[in-house]
């Protein structure tokens, strides 16, 4: 997006005229001409400082549009990976709209967003929610993600309840994870074994690679249709993205 003003156009014409009408001259004359041009430009910018602001705004708008275009292309290229059935999920598998969430159980913003996302899903029972474990805040985050994936592997219907317990609980220690899983009827010995297995390690590695491919730099992050929503966004913004993704 280009932003043009009468002053900016005048400056361009003046500079063009100076650059293309000055004949070849000795080096000393060329230095003098360059100094004169610099003085004209400096005087113009001092008189019209808004031109610099407009140029910066135009450049930023161009960068944002380029990022938007790249993100849409990346989301389209990885659409199958984002909605694959091996991810924990809730809601109709054949839903027309899917909310994909990248999160970390130790992320304070993820915890803050948890009630909002839960209310979003309650208001849209025809929407599928995909949980992508993305532990980036240290060993405790990794352990919680491993436990959650082990619960999903053993008893998929129990996963959303385990996820809810982790998001709303304060204690993510190993004994707390075992206790929460046991409360849901999970075989905790099997869970602990699965947590250290190659399948879950491979799944988390794939999650990291997927996040990198689509530009996820932190948590939480949401993908709804062709929209990428990073950070703790208002639930109204999530709902608007769901509405926009619905088939017409």
Describe the structure.
With 248 residues, the chain is α+β, with helices and mostly antiparallel strands. The protein folds into 2 domains: 6-69, no CATH class; 79-245, 3-Layer(aba) Sandwich (Glutaredoxin), CATH 3.40.30. The chain has helices at residues 6-21, 27-47, 50-77, 79-82, 108-123, 139-154, 159-168, 174-183, 188-195, 198-214, 235-245, and strands spanning 89-90, 98-103, 128-133, 221-224, 227-230. Strands 1-3-2-4-5 form a 5-stranded mixed beta sheet. Helix 5 links the parallel strand 2 (98-103) and strand 3. Helix 6 (139-154) runs antiparallel to helix 7 and helix 6 (139-154) crosses helix 9 (188-195). The longest helix has 28 residues, at 50-77. The model is unreliable at 1-22 (pLDDT under 50).
Question: What's the topology here?
Answer:
Layout: H1 6-21, H2 27-47, H3 50-77, H4 79-82, E1 89-90, E2 98-103, H5 108-123, E3 128-133, H6 139-154, H7 159-168, H8 174-183, H9 188-195, H10 198-214, E4 221-224, E5 227-230, H11 235-245
Parallel strand pairs: 2-3
Antiparallel strand pairs: 1-3, 2-4, 4-5
Helix pairs in contact: 6-7, 6-9
């Amino acid at each position: 997006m280009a932003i043009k003003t009468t002053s900016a156009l005048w400056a361009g014409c003046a500079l063009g005229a100076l650059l293309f009408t000055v004949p070849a001259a000795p080096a000393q004359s060329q230095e003098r001409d360059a100094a004169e041009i610099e003085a004209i430009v400096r005087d113009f910018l001092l008189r019209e400082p808004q031109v610099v602001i407009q140029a910066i705004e135009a450049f930023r708008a161009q960068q944002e549009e380029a990022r938007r275009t790249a993100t849409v292309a990346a989301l389209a290229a990885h659409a199958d990976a984002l909605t694959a059935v091996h991810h924990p999920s809730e809601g109709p598998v054949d839903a027309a709209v899917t909310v994909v969430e990248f999160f970390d159980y130790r992320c304070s913003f993820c915890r803050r967003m948890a009630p909002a996302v839960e209310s979003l899903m309650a208001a849209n029972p025809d929407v599928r929610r995909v949980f992508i474990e993305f532990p980036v805040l240290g060993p405790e985050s990794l352990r919680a993600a491993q436990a959650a994936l082990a619960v999903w592997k053993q008893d998929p219907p129990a996963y959303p309840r385990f996820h809810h317990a982790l998001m709303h609980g304060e204690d993510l220690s190993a004994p707390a994870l075992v206790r929460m899983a046991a409360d849901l009827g999970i075989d905790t010995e099997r869970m602990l074994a699965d947590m250290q297995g190659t399948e879950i390690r491979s799944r988390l590695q794939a999650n990291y690679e997927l996040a990198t491919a689509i530009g996820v730099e932190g948590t939480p992050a949401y993908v709804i249709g062709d929209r990428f929503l990073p950070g703790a966004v208002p639930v109204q913004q999530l709902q608007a993205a769901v509405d926009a993704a619905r088939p017409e």
